[in-house]
Amino acid sequence: MNRELVTFPFHVIVHPFNGYWDLKYDRDQKFNLIVSCVVLFLLALTNILGAQYSGFVVNLYNPNEMNSLLELVYVVVPVLFWCVANWSLTTLMDGEGKFIEIFTATCYALIPIVVINFPWIWLSNVISLQETSFYAFSHAVAYLWFIFLLFAGNMTVHQFSAGKTLGIMVLTVIAMGFMAFISLLFFSLVQQIIAFITVIYQELVMRS
Amino acid sequence: MLKSILKSRPLLLLAICCLLSTTLGGAAAYAEGDGTSYNYSFWGRTAAAPAAYQATDLYNGSDLGVGAFKEPSDLHVTTDNRIYVLDSGNNRIVILDEHFKPIEVIDSFVREGQADTFAKPQGLFVTDQNEIIIADTGHNRVVHLDSEFRWVKTIEAPKSDLLQANYQFQPVRVVMDQAQRTYVMATGVFDGFMEFNAQGDFTSFIGANRVYIDPVEYFWKQISTQAQRSQMLMFTPTEFTSLDIDGEGFIYATNGDQWGDNIKKLNAQGTDILRRSGYFSPQGDIRYTSDTGPSRLIDIDITDSEMYSVLDSKRGRIFTYNGDGHFMYVFGGLGNRIGEFKTPTAIERVGDDFIVLDKALGEITVFKTTAYGRTLNDAVRSYYRGDEKQAFRLFNETINMNANLEFAYAGIGKSLLRQGDYKEAMKHFKRSMDQNNYSKAFLLYRKEVMRQYFGFIMTAVVTIAAIWAGVLAYRKSSRRKGGISFE
């Protein structure tokens, strides 16, 4: 079991179709959930450490604008947005995936970003400006790999055809945009209601 | 109650003293950077800086003993520090020495046996041979006088196919290069500067500004009819607002662009070759409120070592940049105190001092360097000359006075790099956010470290390989013996 905790995620990222099949049908969901949360945490950690400790030639960073908590939010919120949007769309379009499966598949897809970016935090300290192209290339590979895994995961979890998966992924991104818009609208309205109530309260207090 | 207060009186007194002293101390610290002097950090934030220049004297025409100035519009200072003031309202040129003692007043000249005068001249230039070029705007001509103020030639309205038939020649600024070519900035000309040869014949236009097209405006223009379109504004390039020429014959010019580059350095072909490798391209203020907008630069003055200064008429500030485009210092402002102006119109350097001409008030303000300004000027000069040791010392002195001056660290870093102290150089380049030079220093540093620890690293690698091989051999032999394998 403990050994599996490490080997299975790596098995998934190098054998995505088999791996995701195992993830959906053979694995215990609690196990998947633990791995997913660990991956999310590690990704946030990689981003935070990357912002702080990456070499100067690849990382111009302003310590005044660095916020570890926000880095955490930048990881967790997009993932949750993606999962919610994807789940909402696929339930309407005969997808077979449950929410938990979508979430774990997405988190497993993030593993290459952690695995590739983390060593580069330290490696970037010993490279020169000419060698930064290796850095950029590795990062590009990590993101392409991530997108491919996202695609494979979606396809396996929902049992879609390749074309339909691509369509769903594009629609999911659009749905994320809608969700962001609606959340902003909601927050600004709530803010205004709160401000309104505060003003009324103040008015009452001042008069009495 | 009263007793207890009385008892604690010494304590109270002490507290008051402490409070007072902190506020006084704060005021003293604040006075040093009184808000008119600042610099921009790499991140575009304003950082307070000590004043580089301070206003020391204020002169008007009556103080100088030549009668009040009336709307003076241009200044020029020669290499031997003679100051030429163009007193447009009185149609005369006043020449002062470096101590502001009047030498000469020119209000007329003799042309082909006849006395001639100026009419509302706007621009003035004096060559290294003390020949005077005057943009005699009211008479639609440019007058060239020699060093004895004798008439040499007049440049009249040019006749060219490039100009419209009803074109009115209104020169406002002039310069002349070493080869006696005259460059004229005229109102209503959008094609750049007019270039005249030594005989005063029109040759060409150089350095036209580019047209800025507002996308919204462009959209409306596309969907409107011909009749509507003719009522709209035309897209025309902005006019230049000022020009100056350096010792090598490059023209420095400012224009009224709101977008894009409002300072240009033109070569003989009219191509902009200004280096913009500072944290921001030279443009005056980069932080401003949207209702006042960006700086409007109306005068430029180029001095030695490629340093140049521009005058912002909107906020009355004078910005100075070095040849790489790093922002060095700013001073001035609009107001009523000394060192502030109402309608600043021209700036010039007299040695290291600045003189600023105020058009409406007819006054000349003199700014002298502070210790900080002097050190910074000298540091930039020695850096430009390639005198690394001197630059190192002076830049160090500068950052002792202003730790926020980020580009100074790059200067220190470069001389450290030359001296072979790569690690310190890296530290300084990092402070000035200079990735290129950091990388250079880092490569050298890496090589040095590698060389130093090569023996150790190789020993470690060989040892690890030997142990690994040993383990493999042991496993193999134990497996052959039929022992239990690890896997």
From TrEMBL, chain A:
It is found in: Membrane. Residues 10-183 form the Yip1 domain. One of its GO terms (cellular component) is membrane. It holds the Pfam family Yip1. It is a multi-pass membrane protein. Keywords: Membrane, Transmembrane, Transmembrane helix. The chain crosses the membrane at residues 31-52, 72-90, 102-122, 134-156, 168-201. It comes from Paenibacillus sambharensis. This is YIP1 family protein.
From TrEMBL, chain B:
The keyword ATP-binding does not apply. This is Uncharacterized protein. It comes from the Bacteria. NHL repeats lie at residues 65-99, 108-148. Keywords: Membrane, Repeat, Signal, TPR repeat, Transmembrane, Transmembrane helix. Coiled coil: none annotated. Residues 1-27 form the signal peptide. TPR repeats lie at residues 406-439. The chain crosses the membrane at residues 453-474. One of its GO terms (molecular function) is zinc ion binding.
